Amino acid sequence: MTTAPIAVAAHGLTKRYDDVDALAGVDLEIRAGAVTGLLGRNGAGKSTLLQLVAGFERPTSGRILVDGEDPFDNAVTMADTQLVREGGDAFASEPVTDTLGWYRDLREHWDADLAAGLADAFELDTSQKVENLSRGQSSMVGAIIGLASRAPLTIFDETYIGMDAPNRETFYEALLTDYAAHPRTIVISSHLISEVERMFEDVVILDAGRVLVHGDADEVRARGLTLTGRATEVERLLGTRDVLARRDLGPTSQITVLTQPGDELPALARQAGLEVDGVGLQDLFVHLTRRTAASPEGESR
Ligand SMILES: Nc1ncnc2c1ncn2[C@@H]1O[C@H](COP(=O)(O)OP(=O)(O)OP(=O)(O)O)[C@@H](O)[C@H]1O
């Protein structure tokens, strides 16, 4: 087992279930030592990708590499990888402590103090049987396993969805603090984009089994721009750009567009007296994935 953060690469990765391509030729590099947000609408292929990374499934075609190795049933990469799924992977009829003890024995870098501290912060009674926990309490068990394992590749697949807002905040703070002290590769799949996006250094958006967007989170955010002002001015500046959303109110238009790095549009728009605003990652995600749903060929990226 390694202590260094681990990179993941996918080349032409395809996973077919019956007649569904859950992943359809994914090419991707997940940076070692960064927090990557994995976003996508329901059924986009996020969990499928993460199960392949964790070595639980085999690709139909193409390759997935974890630290340069095929992770399927691979004891070396699996020892370095902690995937936490919604609902957790815990012994249902046993107390929570039994599951935590199992991970303590399995994970070389397990931090028992961190696990105990998180259970306290969540006010989780670890003597309870897992099957008697509420949905949010089950999520807490997953969050504890994910953080206290300190695996070089740690993956949270909608782990914390059942937790209430204060407990989710506790989890985010703990993740950021522990990640700063013990850097590792972290992948977070989530639908709560506006809540978790501050943790992302990189972002991947999957859409219908394909990579729609991949890049540095700030650069991805900077791709969306909203211009508000006189409709004629807005129209003049737009030219042939991709319009993601449009609202017209009398003589005023508000238009969300995609920009490219180094684009002069924001400066030109300000000079023309238009209001220029960024677009949050969640709004950008909604605009992009709605648009491609309406036009299956999507945009070129
Ligand atoms: N074991 C399976 N058998 C058959 N089809 C599957 C299986 N697992 C996933 N799929 C299909 O593959 C596609 C991708 O599913 P996946 O669970 O990866 O999506 P997701 O992005 O995680 O979705 P969500 O956000 O809803 O959890 C879906 O169409 C799903 O029905």
UniProtKB/TrEMBL annotation:
Record key words, sorted: ATP-binding, Nucleotide-binding, Transport
Listed Pfam families: ABC_tran
Molecular-function annotations in GO: ATP binding; ATP hydrolysis activity
Lineage top rank: taxon: Bacteria
Residue intervals of the ABC transporter domain: 8-233
InterPro entries linked to this entry: AAA+_ATPase, ABC_transporter-like_ATP-bd, ABC_Transporter_VariousFunc, P-loop_NTPase
Keyword flag Nucleotide-binding: yes
Gene3D superfamilies: P-loop containing nucleotide triphosphate hydrolases
Protein name per Swiss-Prot or TrEMBL: ABC transporter ATP-binding protein
Lineage of origin: Bacteria, Bacillati, Actinomycetota, Actinomycetes, Micrococcales
